[in-house]
Amino acid sequence: MRAMVMERQGGALELRELPIPQPSAGELLLKVAACGICRTDLHVVDGELTEPKLPLIPGHQIVGVVEALGEGVAGFRPGDRVGVPWLGGTCGECDYCTSGRENLCDRALFTGYQKNGGFADYCTADSRFCFPLPAGYPDTQAAPLLCAGLIGYRSLRIAGPGKRLGIYGFGAAAHIVTQVATWQGREVYGFTRPGDTAGQAFAREMGACWAGGSFDAPPLPLDAAIIFAPAGELVPAALRAVGKGGIVVCGGIHMSDIPSFPYDILWGERSIVSVANLTRRDGEEFLKLAPQVPVRTEVHLFPLEQANEALAALREGRIRGAGVLVP
Ligand SMILES: [Zn+2]
Ligand SMILES: [Zn+2]
């Protein structure tokens, strides 16, 4: 099979011919139909996340078709279409795992980071962490639901029920969350890099009632804000944009340092919280909700062997919506 392989962090992925992996007990062998690219892949490739397995096949928004079953797999058959998310395995027995917070498990394994992912023709995955996918989504449009959608949904839930929601960084997750939030009857305020008029127009197209630059004040104080861009200076900006009792949710896995800020902008019971990974329950809930909205994903397709070009386009903010690799 072909695979895009990371030998070391900080370099380009290399196209390799590798043997098709064999599924171990409990695993599925999947023929990859599409794999979304995510900012987390950039953090892995660029070295901001420091514990990858090496060599590594990245990619954690995998839509695949079951080719073969490892020993003891129940509930799947060859030919089934499944989704593989970032959470690739947990210990199942720690305090986090047994209290509905498996996203925080210290022994969790992440797809395309500690396990090979979907930048390849085939991959294996622990069947207990794979999701059936809703019908009605072509493979390429289903792929971004698996991280942009899932982490976006978890961020939205943690942002609480407030009506006026700000979203900082208008990429793949934001374009999905905006559709869900407006369907729930909320107002979405989209914040992009200052001067990014194309990004602001995209936010309005997705349903935002207002769009502006990251450091602009919204017309009214917000109830909550979600930050998807990995820029620490957005935290004080978002604190200034939310009203008393407002919550600022950091939805990314990595962020540059947060500059110091006056206590004034946190005072009034404002809070800051991060969102880490996902639970399988998030996946089940969101994949049921997405077709009801219905969430439509805007995708930009790249052939598998152009993974480096796709990651560069994401890094430079040139992808409208979500980027997806197709074998
Ligand atoms: Zn655990
Ligand atoms: Zn991701």
UniProtKB/TrEMBL annotation:
<dbReference type="InterPro" id="IPR036291">
    <property type="entry name" value="NAD(P)-bd_dom_sf"/>
</dbReference>
<dbReference type="InterPro" id="IPR020843">
    <property type="entry name" value="ER"/>
</dbReference>
<feature type="domain" description="Enoyl reductase (ER)">
    <location>
        <begin position="10"/>
        <end position="325"/>
    </location>
</feature>
<dbReference type="InterPro" id="IPR013154">
    <property type="entry name" value="ADH-like_N"/>
</dbReference>
<protein>
    <recommendedName>
        <fullName>alcohol dehydrogenase</fullName>
        <ecNumber>1.1.1.1</ecNumber>
    </recommendedName>
</protein>
<dbReference type="InterPro" id="IPR014187">
    <property type="entry name" value="ADH_Zn_typ-2"/>
</dbReference>
<dbReference type="InterPro" id="IPR011032">
    <property type="entry name" value="GroES-like_sf"/>
</dbReference>
<dbReference type="Pfam" id="PF08240">
    <property type="entry name" value="ADH_N"/>
</dbReference>
<dbReference type="GO" id="GO:0046872">
    <property type="term" value="F:metal ion binding"/>
</dbReference>
<keyword id="KW-0862">Zinc</keyword>
<keyword id="KW-0479">Metal-binding</keyword>
<keyword id="KW-0560">Oxidoreductase</keyword>
<comment type="similarity">
    <text>Belongs to the zinc-containing alcohol dehydrogenase family.</text>
</comment>
<dbReference type="GO" id="GO:0004022">
    <property type="term" value="F:alcohol dehydrogenase (NAD+) activity"/>
</dbReference>
<dbReference type="GO" id="GO:0005737">
    <property type="term" value="C:cytoplasm"/>
</dbReference>
